[in-house]
Each structure stands twice: as C-alpha cells, then as structure tokens.
Sequence to fold (961 residues):
Amino acid sequence: MSPYLPLPHDLVFFLQGMVGLLTGIFLFWTLRRFENQPQARFFIVFLGLYALHAWIHMLFLGWTPSSGYQWALMLTQLGTSAALAMWGYRSFVPATARPKLRWLPLVFYLLFALGLIRGTQTYFMLVHLVGGLFALGMAVAGLARGGGLLVGGRPLVQRAAFMLLILPVLLNAIAPYPVYFHAWGGYLHGMLSTHGMNPEMIELAALLLGMGLLHFHARRSPQVTSPLLTNPLRRHFRIAMISILTIIVSGWLFMGRAQIQQDREERAKILQAIRNASLAFSPREIHLLSGSAADQNHLTYLRIKSQLQDLRKANPGSRFLYLMGSRDGRIFFFADSELPASPDASPPGQIYEEASEALRSVFEHGHEITEGPLPDNWGIWVSGLVPILERDAVVAVLGMDVDASSWQKMLFKARLPALTVMWLGCLLILGVFIYMRKTSESAMSLMESESKYRILFEESADAHFLMEDAFTDCNAAACRLLGYSKEEIIGRQPWDFSPDVQTDGMDSRRQAMDLITRARNGQPQAFSWDLRTREGDILHTDVRLARHGSEDTRSLQIIVRDRTEEIRRRDLERRMEARLSEVQRWEGLANLAGGVAHDFNNLITSIVGNVHLIQMEGRGNPRVAESLDAILESSRMATELARQMLAYAGKSTLSVRPFHVGHVLENMEKVLKAAAASRARIEIDVAPDLPAVLGDTTQVQQVILNLVINAMEAIDRRNGVIRISVDKAQFTQEQMIGCVYRDLPAAGEYIVLTVRDNGKGIPPEVLVRIFEPFYTTKFTGRGLGLAAVLGIVHNHSGAISVQSVVGTGTTFEVRLPASRRQAEAKSFRSSEEMPALSPLRLLIAEDEESLLTLARRILERHGHTVFAASDGDAALALARQQEGQLDLVIADVLMPGMSGLELILQLKKEFPSLPVLLTSGHVPEQNEAAFAKAEGFLAKPYHYKDLFKKIHDILQRKNAS
Fold:
C-alpha cells in the first residue's frame, strides 16, 4: 500500500502517470491558445516535463528505483524547476532589465552542469533545493505580474489556475531528494504527512483542479487561430486520444496480469527450491546447535554451512541462503551461505533486527511464504521462507534471498511483450493521426489554395480560360469580353472566337495550334492575339499561355488582357500629336497669309479710293473712264485673292446668323448646274427637317462653290457626276479625329455637307498637301481655293475630311455644328445706289497715312466735316475735345498704341450714345465684347459706296431708336 494513500502502490503510480498523460494532452490544447506569447513557451515546457516526470513513475509502477530511474527523475525534476524559473523570469523581469539580470537563470544551470561532472548525493540535494527555491521565487514573482500568459488584465481565475498547476512540482522541487527514499518522499512530504496530510493526494488534486480552472479561463478568453488543430481534425484527434487511452489502460491491465502471473510462478519456484533444500536439514542436527558464537567450531554448524553454500551454488538466482531460529521472541541466525571472510556473513547467534511480520508468522504458524521486495542492512530482497518442522513444531526457518534488481528485471521481461504492444499501438495510432493530420492539412491547404485560386480566377479583371482538348472553364471576365455565356464557351476552341486571319497575316487556327503545342511542351507563351466578339467586333489582346497543374497534364491556363482601348488610346494620341503638329504648321501659314492680306487690303483700299476721286473729277473723258474701270476690275480680283487668304487664315469677318445649309445649296443649284453643264451632271440631295447652322451664309456659299469647282476640275470626261448632299449625323470626338480641324470639335450633332465626284482622284502625295495655301497642281491655279475652304470651316468650329481613290474619285465631307436656334429669313437691299447723307461731323482713326488722307478727302468732297487721327490715343483726345459734336467715329481695328477695339470700349464708357464703325482687313483675335459695342463693321478693301451705305444704315438705326 502507498504510505499516504489507502491504495495499492502500483495504482497510485498509474494514476500519477495518467495525470501526466492528461497534462500532456492539456499542454497540446493550451498551446493552441497561447502559442503566440513568448513567455508562455516556458510554461508549456514546464507542463511537458512534469508530464514526462509522471510517466516515468508510471513506467516503473513503484518498483525499487534503479540508478537510471533516479537519473531520469532527477533530470525531469530539475528541468521542471528550470522551466518554471524561466517562465517566472520572463513574466516578472521587464524586457529592458533582462540584459542586466541575464545571469540569474544561468546560475541554476551552472550548478546543475557541475553536478553532472562531480556529483554526490549531498550535492544533488543542494542543487535541487537551490533550483526549487529559485523556481518558487520566480514563479511567485511571475504570478504577481499576472502570469504573463494572457495579454490584458490579471484575472483571479488565471492566477489560481497557475498556482495550482505549479504546486505539485514545487512539492518535489523544494524537497531534498533522498536517493533510497520513495520518489515522492522527502522532508516536505514527511512534514506534511506528520500533520495528517497526504502529499500525493495534494498533488493529484492540485493538478486536476488547476487544469480545470485554466481550461475554464481559456474557454472564456478569445481563441487564437492555430494551425495545429483545425475543425476537420478535432474528431480525429478525439478518436486518437480515446484510442491511446484505451490502449494504455488495456496495456496496463495486461502488464499487471503478466507481472502477477510471473511473480507467482517465480515465488512458487523459490518455495519449491527451498522446500527441496529443507529436506537436507534434520531437526535432530539443528537441536545440536546452540544458536550462539560457540557454534562456529561445531562440526554440525560447519556441515550445515557447507550445505547452504552448496545449495546457493545449485540455485544461481539466489543471493543468500540462511537458517534462522527464534528464541524469546527474537529471531537469530543459525548459519548462512556466506564465506566467513565475507563482510555480508552473519555469525551464529546474530540477532536479525529487520525481521518482518511475515517472517515472525512463519515461526508462529509454520506456513511457508515469500515476501518482498523489502530492504534490510544487506540490500533489497525478495525472500522465500520455509519452516523445518518436528511434530508440527517449528525448529528453524530456511530462507533464500533473491536480489530485488534481478527480480525487477525478470518481471520487466514478463511485462515487456505487453509494454511493447502498448507502445507500438500508441505509436501506430499517433502515426496514423499524424498521417491523417498531414493528409488533412494537405487537403485543406489544397482546398484553400483552390479556393483562393478560384476567387482569383473568378474575380480577376483579366479573362481566364482553362482548356484541355477544348475550353473546360472560364471566368466572368471572359464571358464579358467575348459576349458569350460560359456554357457557350465551354467545349469550343480558341480559333472559334478569332478572326480567320490575325493582324500579322497568319491563319488563326494554325497559329493557335502551334502555340498550344509549345505550351504543352513546357514552354510558356506570351503573345498578341485578335479576338472576335459575338457582335463581330475585333479585340486586340495580350495572351499568356502555360501549363496548368503537373508536368504531365494536358490542361492549359490562358490569361487574356484586353488592350483594345489602350491601342485605340495610343493611336488617338498619335493622331492627335500628328494633328497638333499639322495645326501648328497651318497656323504659321495662316498668320503669314493674314499679314499679307492685311497689307494687301490697305493697298487695294488706297487704289480704289483714288480711282473713286479720279472718277469724280474726270467724268467727261471716256478713255480715262475705261482705264479706271480696268483698274477697279483688277482691284476686285486682288480683293478676292485677299479675301481667300483671310478665309484660310480664319481671320475673315463673319456675319453670324442661324441658317439652313440645305436652303443655301438649293438657292445655288441653278448656278452650279449651269457652270458644270459642259463637264458633269450635278445631283443634289437635301435631307428633310435639318437643324440650322450658326455661321456666315456667304462664306458657306464660298465653301460649296470652291468644292464644286475643285470637283469639276478633277473630271476630264463628259459623263462625270458630282453629287452634293446635306444630312445630319452624331459624331464622337474619336470619330472626329480623322478629320482636318484647328481645335478638336466636341462630340454632338453635326450638319454634314458632302461633295463627291467620279473624277481622276488625288494621289496620296498630293492629298496630304491640298489644304496648304499657295500649293496647286494646276498651271494657272493660285492654291487658295481649298485653303479658303479649310479656313472657313475652322471659323465655323467645324471639321473637314477627304477620301480619294486614284481613278475612282474624291469625296469631301464638311461637318458643321448643328444649332438649336431657328433659321432667319434673309433680307435683300432693294437699291445699290449710294444713299444721300446730310453733312456730318466724322472722326476717322487710321494708322495708314495714305488711307487716312484718302478717306478724309472723299468724305470732305461729299460735304462732311472730318477729324483725322493716326492712332487710338489721338482719336480719344479729339473725341473729348468735340464732346457732343461728333455724329460718328470710324476706327481701324489694328493700330499702334491703343487699338480700335480698346478705343471703342473707352468711347462707349465716356460717350455711350456716340456710334462707332470698325474697319479692318485682318482681325487676328476677335474681341466679342468690343465688337458687340460697335454699331457696324466694314471689311477692307471696300468701295466708298459701301462706306456711305454703312454710315447711312448706322445713323438710320440710331434715329429710329
């Protein structure tokens, strides 16, 4: 029986071993909760070593300790103390102070290392005591800081659980370790037992209660996700643990049965051997001995001692054979099998002080028995005792001692088969569980990887396809890209969704099969590919093609990225850059043409004005009148040339109003057909219900006329056809890119004027230059017709495009923005005669001295008072001098210093009722605010009849208002 528990010794140690096993299982479970906290690792090691310590007890089941057994217990006890100390150290000592105190934990390990080299029992006891006290101090300090296992808060339940778990180890760590005492003995145990306490019961109760409290606390704390034990493995883990427990319990039962059976057999053998040996001793001879030192020289004593020595030799498993007697309640030796010189020899008459109750009962009752293992002064023995009787009276007792270590080895061999099967079964189950865990983890990892891949596959913005002999799967992006459902894609081939021929001219099917073969041979492919959607649109894509899965698989993964918009955007940027460069070149030419036209108009105005004066003075000379008419005709032609240059430059003055392009074309129909009658047939098609265009009717007429003339010159046969149409259409900015324009027109509704001929066409090298001013392929041409058309279209915020095929014909398409305003009815002047004007007080501002002098002379000839100024500042000064006396101000737009536009703003501020007429041959940037304040505008060059008409109209409107 156990010294402290009313249970068999073996059962007590088995319970301790089971507690150790449960502690190990609990350790595994605890690791899931606290594995990410560094200081918890030492506590986990502490629990694990204690579990090992208890298993060592269970393995030997309370047998007499051997040297290896003692070392194993010592190592595990020292290890638990060290782990406990390190846990307390990491929990108690701040991280900043650890470099200064790092020597503290090392002291214990140094003492232990020295003990391994030169260790004695006293030294081990000292090390054990020092280590235990250090562990206790550090553990208590760690508990004072909350145990260090859980972050945040120091719950009472947690502290209590830790203290209860530490207590069993402290009971062993503090107690000096007597080598020959029970493993759970020692000073502290003895002290507890003397006060009526059972240390083993305290240890078991503390362990169970501590684990229960910590389990309760951990269940209420936030669980940390751990890869050790996932949901699919919990059931397997429970089954494995139950199976291991079942095998251990069954193994222990079989081992106990084998041990008991072997023990009985060996004890029976001992009794039989002693029973046979007892036949050699006669009670009569024993009576001859006195049981004292006087027997040493007695012949009977010597013969009996010799017989005992022979019997020992005949039983090699025995250590001692001896003959005992009893006198006055005391048991003494008659003789033993030891040689007289042996230190273990017992002289005759020596009292056996360690006589057990079993030995005494043999003398009292005469029953043969075996006992032990029991210790005495000679060691620890298993003893067989047989009485020698005479008339049912016990004369002596013959005993045989077997060394306990040999006995333990014998019993261990009996337990070994069951123990081996038990451990193999545990290892098998553990191996199966580890295999299942690995398999499950691999499966779960594969499932997780598959899930992640599926998410990436389905949610990717790129189109993903899987194929073997045909498509087997695709994602939503692939369906959106092609415009087909997944069911329509699966089972088909890549070339089913491709044009017959790729951009590089290769056959789609042949090229796709070649790329697939390379990919299946382990060569990943990256290439550009054209796809065709359900709607028939061609998509430009980048494709990556590679094997999907193992090397021997036929499965391929195809990743497609649509680059159509990117390519279109790049093409758009390239075209816009080219267009910008072209516009900049045109603007340079336009500025040049505008400057030339401005100077040209001033010269023509001077010529026309002087001709007008000569006509007024020389009306009676026919020859002079004829020459003057010729000069005026040349001036008119020069004026037209300047007007075309200004139109190209976009500097011509617009008379803006809403009108229908179709009506303009219909009004010109007779003139156009008459002009083209000898060369081509003109067909006109005007769509109904067209919106108006906001612009200058005269300039749109010039566009139509110039395009028709250009078409007529391209037709060199009599059966030519010129088709002119007017329609409306919606255009995006991208669709406007291919046109010629100054600023990129906005998307919206446009009126489209199309002039198409079936002439000889325009060669490509000429087509790129047809809108340049002064560029012509005709011997007599000036190169300003199409240039003027382009300038007028620019002035109307429109665009023009041209397509031409040599030998087939040319098509010009003019796109003008549609207006929501209603078209106005055009009014016509009834008389071209110069109106009569009463004498006026006029102020003229003109920077050209010749024009200023000429205008002053003409106006004064007609009876008007004229004040002349060569710049805006002088004109403003004269207006201030003549405050309230001026009828009209005539100002050139472009003048040095204060321009005409700045002058009109200042005049309207100081003299709001004073009308102003602006004149110019070149308007670079129209200031709408200034032009809106002017009562009229007259473009240079002008006839002085037009000047008088404009003055008449302005004053008439003023008087009417």
